[in-house]
Amino acid sequence: MGDLASGAVITLVIPVADALIANRTNVRHLWYSVRFASRDVRISAAYLFRVKIDDKYLLIQGRRFPQLQPVGGVYKISTSGRSFLSSIDAQDDSLIPFDSQSSNDLRIRIKGSRIPKFYAWFDSRSGREDSPWREFHEELVSTGILPADAFPFTFQDYVKREVDRIRYSEHAQSWEILIADVYELLPSPDQESALRRLAMTDTPNVAWVTEEAIRRRGVLPNGTVLNIAQHARRIV
Question: What is the mean pLDDT of residues 45-62?
Answer without folding.
Answer: 96
